[in-house]
Amino acid sequence: MKKALIVWMTALLVSGCGETTGNQQAYLLQGAWVLRQMDYPIGGCRTYSETEGTSLRLYDGDSVMYEYNLTRTASGLMVTPNIQSKVTLIDKGHSEYLYLEEDDPHPLTIVDDSTIVIQRNGILFTWVKVDDIEKEWGSEMKDIIAADAWNNKEGERQRYMLSAKERQQANMIHGFIFSTIGIILILVLMARVAIDNRKQRCRLQLQLQQIQEVKEERPLSVKQAIESVETTYFSSDEYQTLQRRIATGQRLKDDDWSDIENQIKKVYPGFSSQLRGLYTLSELEYQVCLLIKLRIAPSDIAAILARDASTISTVRSRLYQKVFGKKGGTKEWDDFILSIGT
To answer: How far does CA 166 lie from the centroid of its chain?
Structure first.
């Protein structure tokens, strides 16, 4: 009967006293609040401090409230779990609310963003928000309430020390663990890269060896035929036209590069496939190799590609190191390019 009467009164207050607009954002009781002052109806008040001892409430939205006895010390917080209650907040308008704790209604006034006043039995309880406690200990304090309710069947309450030093040490341990895991992952990644590079190097060495063996095992008649094809091409009108364009400083278009590739395939059928099989080349690196194969001078290569001569030299020496795994000069790379695909 009493509960039904409370529900009826609550509905009456909501329907008759609510003056908030639809655009006003609902107020939420969230975070940690400490009891700062009690004002009595007959006069007089009592103040509380965290260092001397007070009450603390931890609200999980307008639904659940966890209450503790709290004392703040130099080393952390001393807390004793008290109760866990269901709460409801009903807006009456003008910063006035009806605060229901387990269906027991009390007036609540919002003083400002960090201060509220709850009236109970004529006494005004002033609560002040403490963001640092909620941020640092909120999750742990909720766990304490749950563990205390489970472990203490006879209603006995235990005190819990939340040590700032222990928290700092725990954070250091967690940081050390994460750092160690990160270092292990980096080492594993480095080992994987080293293994992949080693496999790549072995594959390249095998390919180079096969290219050299094929070249050495060719019959004399085949070598002579290849030399004849080369001689014919380098004296052809196509090659002479390309040389004149280079000499006059004309830039090569996309169609010109396609034509050059086709000319090289006619003379050196296996060149492009062997070259791309050794290493993943950028467009610039591939174009430099094509022009080297066509016996174009490095200074002319730089002019055709609109690059500095030093850039072309760097590309050639860098390619030699990538393919052979050791430092080499530009001439060594040029000799290698001239030797493959024939």
So the answer is: 29
Nearest C-alpha neighbor of 205 from the set 34, 324, 63, 55: 324
- The answer to whether residues 290 and 273 touch, using CB atoms and an 8 Å cutoff, is no
Burial degree of 290 (CB within 10 A; 0-12, 13-18, 19+): buried
pLDDT in tens, 91-105: 888 889 999 988 899
Q: Would residue 234 count as lying in a domain? A: yes
Number of domains in the chain: 2
Helical axes 271-278 vs 283-293, angle rounded to 10°: 140
CB 90 within 8 A of CB 97: yes
Strand partners, 250: none
Shortest CA distance to 203 belongs to which of 126, 280, 141? Answer: 280
**pTM (global) more than 0.70:** no
pLDDT of 260 above 90:
no
- Report the C-alpha gap between 332 and 104 in whole angstroms: 91
CA distance 342 to 340: 6
Same domain, yes or no, for 126 and 251? Answer: no
Looking at residue 159, its pLDDT comes to: 78
Token duo for residue 89? 């907040």
Locus of tokens 């341990």: 173
Does pLDDT of 152 surpass 80? Answer: no
Tens-digit pLDDT profile for residues 265-300: 888 888 888 888 877 889 999 999 999 988 988 888
Task: Look at residues 258, 338, 251 and name the one whose alpha carbon lies nearest to residue 302.
Answer: 251
* One domain for residues 56 and 136: yes
